[in-house]
Amino acid sequence: MTGTSAGCLLLRLAAVLLTAYLGVAVGKNHGTKTYIVQMAKSEMPASFSHHLNWYASLVESSRSYGTNGEQQRIIYSYEHAFNGFAVRLSEEEAEQLEAYSGVVNILPETAYHLHTTRSPVFLGIESVSGTSVVSPAIAEYDVIVGVLDTGIWPESLSFSDRGMAPVPVRWKGACETGRGFNRSNCNRKIVGARIFYRGYEAAVGAIDEKAEFKSPRDQDGHGTHTAATVAGAPVDGANLFGYATGTARGMAPSARIASYKVCWTGGCFSSDILAAVDQAVADGVDVLSISLGGGVSSYYRDSLSIASFGAMERGVFVACSAGNGGPDPISLTNVSPWIATVGASTMDRDFPATVRLGNGVHLTGVSLYKGQRNLSPQRQYSLVYMGANHTSPDPRSLCLEGTLDPRVVAGKIVVCDRGINPRVQKGQVVKQAGGVGMILTNTAANGEELVADSHLLPALAVGETAGKAIKHYTLTSSHATATLTFEGTKVGIRPSPVIAAFSSRGPNFLTLEILKPDMVAPGVNILAAWSGNASPSSLTVDLRRVSFNILSGTSMSCPHVGGIAALIKTRHPDWSPAAIKSALMTTAYVHDNSLQVLKDASTAGPSTPYDHGAGHIHPLKALDPGLIYDITPDDYLEFLCTQKLTPTQLKVFTKSSNRPCNHSLASAADLNYPSISVVIPDGDGSTMTVRRTVTNVGPPNSKYHVKVSPPKGAEVVVEPINLQFSRRYQKLSYTVSFRTKAAQASPEFGALIWRDETHSVRSSIAMTWLPQS
C-alpha cells in the first residue's frame, strides 16, 4: 500500500469513527451539556493515527458510570482557527476530561446575541450622482467576506452577480443545500453558504424544519441585511415604504460573500460560531464580519476571542460589533485587541415626524410609518399617558402586553415610554387596545437618540426632553390633545455623525491599556436588503413584506467596517489584519459636520474615546493612511504575557507548550496599538513611557512632524518629534512619555498626530490614574 493510500485509509477510518460520535442526542441529554474542548495537537500520543481517534478515546475515557454513548457524542471537530472539538458531557465528565494530557481548555457552551442607501455617499466612497470614487482597478481584485449571521436571502437584487468574473480558484467553500435553498442559489456573488446547528440542537432541541429553514436561507432578515451592507451589488430605487429612496449598495460591491448561518430562532451558540469561524478560515475568506456578542470574562475563556486569534494568524481580518449595551459604561463585547470592535453612529439622513400638541407646541421626532390610517393634520385627537408621572415608571406607561385598558385608550393617541418590550410591539399593543396613534418617548437611558421604526399604526419616537414636555402636558391638562404628521426623508442633518446612545461603551475592563471600542461607523437607520420571509417589524402579526428594511444597531455598523476592510484589502492585498485596522483607526475623524467634537446622543454633550474609540471611519483616507502600526501574532502573544496568564492559559493561543514569554513588552500599553492608553500611579510627578513603531506605506521619501494634545493634568513628551523616511515600508520607532502634573479623579483624553504634507495619522490617548493605596 502506498503512503498516499494509507493516509487516505486512515482519514476514512477517522471519519467513520467521528461519524459514530457526530449528531445530537435530542431528548437524551439529561444531565449533560455542550462543552468546547481545546486540544494541543502536538501532544497527541504516537499510538493514535489521527487526532479524531485521540479525541474519541478521551471522550470514551471520561464517561461516567451509568452513562451511555448517546450522551457523549462529539458534535464538532475544529482544526483550522482552533484545535479541538465540541462534545456533550456531564459536569463531572468535563472535570475529568480537563485533567487529561493534551487538553488545553474546556469552555461551556455560551449563547451569543445579534447586535441589531445612504452610507456609501455619507462615507465618501460614492458620489452623490451614484458613481464610485474607488478606482475600478481595485474592484478587480477578488476579496471574499464571510458573514456569520442568520443566513441569506439569495433572490435579493443585492446579491446579483451580473458582470462578475468567475469565482477565484483559491476558494474552497461550498454551497450547502436544504429546504428552500439549492445549489443554484449560489452564484459569483454568493460564493458559499453553510449552516451550523449541532450546538443549537444540543442545547435547545431539534429545529422544526416546517417552521424554520434548516438551510442557509434567511428566515430572520438580519443576515441578509448585514451581508448586503458588506458587499451588496448596487440596486437602484431601493427604499422602505418610500423612505430612504436611492441606490442601495454595499461597502465593497465587487467583493464576494460567503454566508455562514449560525443563528436560529432560539439563539446563536458558541460551538456553532466556533465551527463557522474554523470552516471560514479553511474555505479561504479574507474578512469576517460578525455582528454577534456574548459575555466577556477573559481572553482565554471567550471562544470567539480564541477563534478570532486563530483567524488573525491566518491573515483574516475580523470585525465584530461592540454591542448595544450603551450608554452604560463598561458594556463592550468583543474587546480582544486582534478584533476590530465597532460602535455605532448616525448619518446625516433622518425621517422626521412632528407632534402638534393642543397647546400649540410643535415637537419633532422620527418615524417610518406608512399606512392607510394617517391622522388628519387638521384634527386634534385625545392624548393619554398611563404613567402617574414622568419619573416613576408604571407598567402601563411602557405599553406592555395586556396593560392597556381599551375603555381608556380607544380612539386616542397613547404616550408610551421606551424600554423592556420592542418599540414596534408597543405600537401593536396600542393598536390592539383601540388606540389610533402612539408617541414613543425616550427615557434617560436613551437621551435624545432617535431610532426610526416601521410602525403598524401612526406612531413616532421623540427624545427624552420632548417626551418630558409631552407627558407633563398630558398629565396637567384635563383635555390633552395632539396630532401626528410624517415628513418623509431628509438629508444634510446637523450635527452628524452622532454616537448612538445604544452603542456599547468602554473602558475595556479586561485591559485598560487597550482602548475600546476601536472605531464607530454608521449603525442608525441603515437601509439594506431584507428576507422575503420576514416582516419589516419582525412581528408575527405584521403581514407586510419588503425587499429592503431599515435597521439600527452595532450589527449594522460592523459590516460597514467589514466591507471597508475588504476595499483596503483590494488595494493592499499583502497587508496584515492589524495594518488594515490601523489604517481605519488612524484616519478616523472626531469632529462632526458642524466642526464640533462628535456628540453623544445619550447626553447631547461631547463624546469621548470610550464612546467613539479612534473616531468615525473615513474610508478614502484609510486607503492611503501614510503610516501604519503593524502587529504580528507574536506581538499579540507577548501582549497576552503581560496579562499574567498561566502557561496553560497561554497555550490556548500558542497551541503549543513550547512557546515561552519573551517579555518584550514592559506592559500592555507597549503593544503597538494605533491608540494609546496608559494607567499610572495617582501622584504628582508620576511618569510612564510607552513605545510605538510606525511603518511608512506612503511615498518613499516622507517626513512627519508630531503634534500632541495632552490629557488634562499631564505633560506628554514625544521623542523624536520628527520621523524621516527614506523608503517605502521602512519602520521607525518613537517613545511617548507621560508625566503627571495634577492627578485627575477620572480618565482624561488627548491625541497624538503625525503629519506630513498630505497625511494625518491620529492616535487617541486615554490616561487613567490609579488611586494611591
Automatic annotation (TrEMBL):
Domain of life of the organism encoding this protein: Eukaryota
InterPro entries for this protein: PA_domain, Peptidase_S8/S53_dom, Peptidase_S8/S53_dom_sf, Peptidase_S8_subtilisin-rel, Peptidases_S8_3, S8pro/Inhibitor_I9, S8pro/Inhibitor_I9_sf, SBT
Domain Peptidase S8/S53: 142-599
N-terminal signal peptide: 1-27
Active site: D149 (charge relay system), H222 (charge relay system), S555 (charge relay system)
Species of the source: Platanthera guangdongensis
Alphabetic keyword roster: Hydrolase, Protease, Serine protease, Signal
PROSITE patterns on file: SUBTILASE
Recorded coiled-coil stretches: none
Xref: Pfam families: fn3_6, Inhibitor_I9, PA, Peptidase_S8
Inhibitor I9 domain ranges (all copies): 34-115
The protein's name: Subtilisin-like protease
Domain PA: 381-470
SUPFAM superfamilies (alphabetical): Protease propeptides/inhibitors, Subtilisin-like
Keyword flag Metal-binding: no
Transport as UniProt keyword: no
Encoding gene (name): ARA12
Family membership: Belongs to the peptidase S8 family.
The Subtilisin-like protease fibronectin type-III domain, residue ranges: 670-766
